[in-house]
Structure formats: C-alpha cells, structure tokens
Amino acid sequence: MPTRTAFCSCGQLSIEVQGDPRGIGLCHCLACQRRTGSVFAALASFATPYRVSGTATEYVRTGDQGAKFRFRFCPFCGTNLFHTEEGYEQSSVAVAVGAIADPDFPPPQDSVYDCRRHSWVRLPPGTRTYEKDPTA
C-alpha cells in the first residue's frame, strides 16, 4: 500500500496518508479560488487513518449545501494543506494535490463548479464536469 506525504511550504506541517486516493477532483468555486490563491483547488480524498505532524491552524467554512469543512493550514507559511468535512472526520481527509509534489500523481476524475472555471483552464480528457455541487 503506497504512503504519500504532503508538506507545507516551510516543512513545519505535514500529513501522511496511506493507499490510493478515493477520488481526485478540481473545484472552481469562488471560495476555493480565494482559499488557494489559484483559479481552482486540486484535491485528493484519502481514507483514514492519516498522520499529521506539526502545528495547524484551522478555518471552518460552510459550503453551499450547508456542510462544514474544517481547513488546516500552516500558521507560519500559510499553506492550506488538508481539510475534513464535519461528520466524516473518521472516514476521509482531502489533501491538496500540489502539496504532495508528485508530478506522476493521477489526474482528476471530477471537476465541480464548472460554471466558475476560467475559460482558459483545460481539463484532462475524460474528466466529469458538474456545473455546481453534484450533491445539490
């Protein structure tokens, strides 16, 4: 079973996950654009357990459908490293794909909030797209 470790920019905060990702997706919602400072968030979901090293600061945001997401980021360099959804903390964690820093990491399968995707962003072939949140 593969082990992957994602690090913040300064290396103070890390998360270690086991196994293959349950899913890989892109989110183009405005909240993710602001949160990441990029035009989309690239996230990979992993099953628990996971191991966190270092100190994290938390920010809770309520999504469009009312779910609460607890984002963890490094208090020193500001890297937004991972998050959990309240009520599902014991089963999964979402990790920022870029923080895994593996150019061979698999491509996304899903793209959500495509209605907010910048026109110049091209998705990998076969990526499923959803105008908004597919659970809505």
UniProtKB/TrEMBL annotation:
Pfam families cross-referenced by the UniProt entry: GFA (PF04828)
Q: Which UniProt keywords apply?
A: Lyase, Metal-binding, Zinc
Q: Identify the residues that the record assigns to the CENP-V/GFA domain, covering every copy.
A: 4-114
Q: Does the keyword Transcription regulation apply?
A: no
InterPro entries per the UniProt record, alphabetical:
CENP-V/GFA (IPR006913), Mss4-like_sf (IPR011057)
Member of which family?
Belongs to the Gfa family.
This protein is called CENP-V/GFA domain-containing protein
Starting at the broadest rank, the lineage of the source organism is: Bacteria, Pseudomonadati, Pseudomonadota, Alphaproteobacteria, Hyphomicrobiales
